[in-house]
Write a structure and sequence with these properties.
Layout lengths: L1 H5 L15 H29 L25 H15 L5 H27 L7 H22 L25 H19 L7 H18 L2 H6 L11 H19 L8 H18 L6 H4 L1 H20 L9 H7 L4 H21 L5
Helix pairs in contact: 2-3, 2-9, 3-4, 3-9, 3-10, 4-5, 4-10, 5-6, 5-10, 6-10, 6-12, 7-9, 7-10, 7-14
Length: 361
């Protein structure tokens, strides 16, 4: 909004030329979302307390979590509200990628809201049935990537797959890109959801990952930078940096209240939305496979659940004391803050390594 109001005036007032720069608008999108989150956060927490939207603890979860019962949840609404406000305030709203990313994020948030609402009504940890939730996610992700497919122009890179470590190997998936892109978005959404089990555990690695993707979006959206790094240039993708900045600031603001001991939890309305946003940005910025590294912690957490379930069904034995993986370390006696900080360190390490691959070809 501010871009459309002030940038046209730059020929009259030179200082308004600053609104053309993505770096400026990305930084202020992050700062805006952060400050608004910190200001309205206490009010949101009080409202959720009055509505008695409290966390329901799984009976088979760690015993140390029983004391968290009743902590306000659905805090993802705070993230989505401040992120949306900041994006609309600072982004160039003529860019379709911004609307596609924003719409998909809010749609996944709506699925999570339904799940959280049913948990509140039933006063149980069981919300939407897994198959219905999964089908809704597939439909929304398929719709988003389908729109991207329709937006593709002959000869552009929209439907090409970027393969890390290879210079020229960029296969055009054509129509097959729709199920592939949907798989990336749905997988990322559920991976973040599985990781959201400790105070700030999912929020920290998400902030790290979305920061990296903000940089990637900026680079691939700039023809000169993309050519220098031998990356596919995606016209219009640079504006996603502003969207990522807004997400980063909103998540930082939420972490202010979600840090141990948490005053509020994000709930599925937050975790499904953040994961959906991460997957969508990965798809739009054409670095889908790199998400396996950038969001490596989420992948590890997801694999721990898959391994645990498969092992128990096939052999009757469990590989981990409890899944997802963070509960395994809790069961081993690690204190919650230690698990959180060490997992953050892993996320930072994986993010740094993923950035190095941009030049390893």
């Amino acid at each position: 909004m501010l871009y459309h109001v002030f940038f046209p005036l730059h020929q009259t007032v030179g200082m308004f030329n600053v609104f053309r720069y993505l770096t400026f608008r990305t930084a202020y999108a992050a700062l805006t979302a952060l400050l608004v989150s910190i200001i309205i956060g206490p009010y949101v927490i009080r409202c959720l307390q009055q509505l008695q939207v409290g966390q329901v603890i799984r009976e088979d979860g760690p015993k140390s979590h029983f004391s968290k019962a009743g902590t306000p949840t659905m805090g993802g609404l705070l993230i989505l509200a401040t992120m949306t406000f900041s994006t609309l305030l600072w982004a160039n709203l003529t860019m379709p990628y911004v609307w596609l990313a924003l719409g998909t994020t809010l749609a996944f948030g709506a699925v999570g809201f339904c799940d959280d609402y049913l948990k509140k009504v039933r006063r149980s940890s069981a919300g939407l049935r897994a198959k219905y939730k999964f089908l809704m996610q597939i439909a929304l992700a398929g719709l988003a990537v389908g729109v991207l497919y329709l937006m593709a122009e002959p000869g552009d890179n929209t439907l090409r797959l970027h393969l890390p470590f290879f210079k020229q190997l960029r296969p055009d998936l054509g129509l097959w890109y729709i199920p592939f892109g949907a798989w990336v978005i749905v997988g990322a959404s559920n991976a973040v959801n599985l990781t959201d089990g400790l105070d700030g555990l999912a929020t920290g690695p998400f902030i790290i990952a979305i920061f990296v993707y903000a940089g990637i979006a900026y680079v691939v959206g700039n023809a000169n930078f993309a050519e220098y790094l031998n990356l596919m240039h995606i016209r219009g993708a640079g504006e996603l940096a502003v969207f990522c900045g807004a997400l980063l600031g909103a998540s930082l603001g939420f972490l202010w209240f979600n840090a141990y001991p948490a005053q509020i939890f994000m709930g599925d309305v937050g975790s499904l939305a953040l994961g959906g946003a991460l997957g969508t940005v990965a798809v739009l910025a054409k670095h889908e496979l790199l998400l396996l590294l950038i969001g490596g912690l989420f992948v590890i957490e997801t694999l721990s659940v898959i391994i645990q379930v498969a092992s128990f069904k096939l052999t009757g034995k469990r590989v981990f004391r409890m899944a997802p993986l963070h509960h395994h370390f809790e069961a081993k006696g690690w204190q919650e803050p230690k698990v959180i900080v060490r997992f953050w360190i892993i996320a930072i390490t994986l993010a740094l390594f993923s950035l190095s691959t941009l030049k390893l070809r």
